[in-house]
Design a protein that fits this description.
Layout (H helix, E strand, L loop, with lengths): L18 E3 L15 E4 L12 E5 L4 E8 L6 E8 L2 E7 L16 E8 L10 E7 L2 E7 L18 E6 L2 E8 L7 E7 L2 E6 L6 E3 L3 E8 L10 E6 L5 E5 L1
Parallel strand pairs: 2-15, 6-8, 13-16
Antiparallel strand pairs: 1-14, 3-4, 4-7, 5-6, 8-9, 10-11, 11-15, 12-13, 16-17
């Protein structure tokens, strides 16, 4: 579990390959990238627009950084370096490849950017993220967790994981096609359990890569018990359960 301002993210450069009918689960691009997966709930965690939050994901191999802005223009993790347990992260806005600038919706939503910890960082011990995003800089303190089994720099096992970023709000990391992020259909929860149901669309044409996708789920303040919470995933090819750290 993270410190009082529990934290989040989304990753840099998705590898796109052949277009296929339907999403695939063939391992391919595991490079951290950005995902604008829809969230359940329109209220962003925290009150300050410049507040940055984060969470440990993928058994401590990865992290999420949560910022607020356009839901369709998620910043990407550009540079990551570490000195001991202090990790310096730079986020950048995604630029279009052509002459036309990328159009962004004029909403204000929490967005999660996913990145990978450098080798040598120990997720079982406390970590400080020094985050820079444009003119905004912030420190995010992540509590170490002795139960984490992932080693930064090692291969992922491509299983979903989740971490709290605020009271009742969490970041869910899933793996699949970068062009077909999970779309939340419904979200419900109380006590120590919750269920998120994703839209299932077998007609989608998705890239045949395997990328990390971040989805923010907000149950609301005091709606659930975040000390020992189990999240059930249903639909969208993501059926299973996740213990939220």
């Amino acid at each position: 579990m993270t410190s009082p301002t529990r934290v989040i993210t989304a990753l840099s450069v998705l590898a796109a390959a052949l277009l296929v009918a339907g999403c695939t689960s063939t391992p391919g691009a595991s490079t951290p990238t950005s995902s604008s997966a829809p969230s359940a709930g329109s209220t962003a965690p925290g009150d300050d627009l410049d507040d940055i939050e984060g969470a440990l994901l993928d058994e401590g191999r990865m992290f999420a950084i949560v910022t607020r802005g356009s839901s369709t223009c998620v910043p990407q993790v550009d540079q990551v370096s570490a000195q001991g347990q202090t990790v310096t992260v730079t986020l950048v806005d995604v630029q279009s490849d052509g002459a036309t600038e990328k159009a962004c919706t004029a909403d204000l939503a929490p967005r999660a950017s996913i990145g990978a910890f450098p080798e040598g960082v120990d997720p079982t011990k406390d970590i400080t993220l020094n985050v820079t995003y444009g003119a905004v800089t912030d420190d995010v303190d992540l509590d170490g967790d002795a139960a984490l089994t992932g080693i930064p720099g090692s291969s992922t096992d491509y299983t979903p994981s989740a971490g709290w970023i605020d009271d009742g709000a969490l970041v869910l990391l899933t793996w699949g096609s970068s062009s077909c992020p999970p779309v939340v259909d419904s979200l419900e929860g109380s006590g120590a359990a919750g269920t998120v149901t994703f839209v299932t669309d077998d007609t989608q044409v998705c890239t045949m890569d395997m990328a990390p996708r971040a989805t923010i789920l907000d149950f609301g303040d005091d709606a659930v018990d975040d000390d020992a919470f189990t999240l059930t995933l249903s639909g969208g090819g993501l059926d299973g359960t996740v213990s939220v750290r």
